[in-house]
Amino acid sequence: MKRTFLFSFLAGIALTVAVAALFPLPRHERFVSQIESLTNGGRGEEFQIRWPQDRLGLDSDSTRTQMGETAGLVVMPGDVSGPAAVELFRLRDVQGNVIGLASRLTAPMPGRRGGMQSVSNWTLAIPSRGSLLLTQENGADMGPVNRGGSWVAAADAPGFWATGSRYRISAGPAPGGRGRVIDGSGEFAGLSGDYSEVWELEELGTDQRSEGLIRLSTLTTRAR
Amino acid sequence: MRLIIAVVGLVCGCLASSAFLLAGGPGLLQARIGLAVDEPSELLVDQVISRGIAEHPAALLGLAASQGGGFSDPGLRHARIGIVRLDSAEAGASALAIKISAPATDNSLLNGRLYMQSTWNMAWPGHGSVFLTGRDNHLPLLANLSWNLVNGDGFKLSERPHPLSEKARLLGAGGRLLAAEGIYREYVSPPGAGKLELGLGNN
User: Fold this and answer.
1) Which of A42, A44, A156, B31 is 20 to 30 A (C-alpha) from B147?
2) Which domain range does residue A212 map to?
């Protein structure tokens, strides 16, 4: 009897271990990284976002919040300093593969020369690789615009594209008016460097709805 | 009689090894590093929007479908975003924050690893912003769910805050928080409300 119990007990353990070892946990599909090796030992990688098709719709789950949600934009009105806004996009590599998610959090922050400065923080999350964290001062106010009581993204505001069809948004704090790569997680852990954010307009409708491409070009080295 | 004993032995073996794995498996035998948070600021999480997989152990096992559109691409199928407002009695002002999570690439039930790799970005308009990153350990939540199921309370979490974050730290900051360094700990409390303890200091 004891032997029967012992053998079946061990069989139970073996069965559980087999199930735990063979259970198909979710795995992320990984695309080949489009990284360019630089002569200074660093690396360059460009990420792209096509708008409006890569913009993710953000309808509120909550009726308690006092935030404004419109297509692809969540706005927290804030106090005298101005509103904060989150936009969310699918992130692509230079070959156009969707490799992750990108969030852009824009808010007014104390500037280097006093006063308030429009600042954007990017989180580039690639599930199979990790996250890369970027921050920049914006060359123009990139915060949301209140049009007729509802919020619209800066790129869809009237007059935004009046002076050109290609804008570099980054204006510091890194030298050359580039944004700063703060750090990362996973494969990107310990990286630092700089980047530039460039918007390229491809089409502008009569209702101010625009189509185009955002290029995030990063130059990084391993800091530690 | 022998058959009954064999079945009882098999069930006991399954239960004993499941309990071992849910308690952390081989990781139980390694030293644990505690997260010390001295007098942290308590931020209440007001969930505004969530998309992708649920913040639930079942989602990490691939047993829950994604919510919302835009997550059908192979590279995003198991990702999650949450946009929240963080309220604090101490800070006075609210922060707007976004959390992006995905199952860790080294998850293994056999080794007692069931993590979500998470990145937070939060901003207090006119003041400053912080980037945080950490690993959310869902194994204790799965153990709690399993225990409640065995007890006949259903497959749901106990009504108390459950600590979530491990190896959670501040990676960078901006504005008036530029020189800040610190750590954080996130708690989930059913039914969906949570809180975040953020301990900041200057370096």
Assistant:
1) B31
2) 34-222
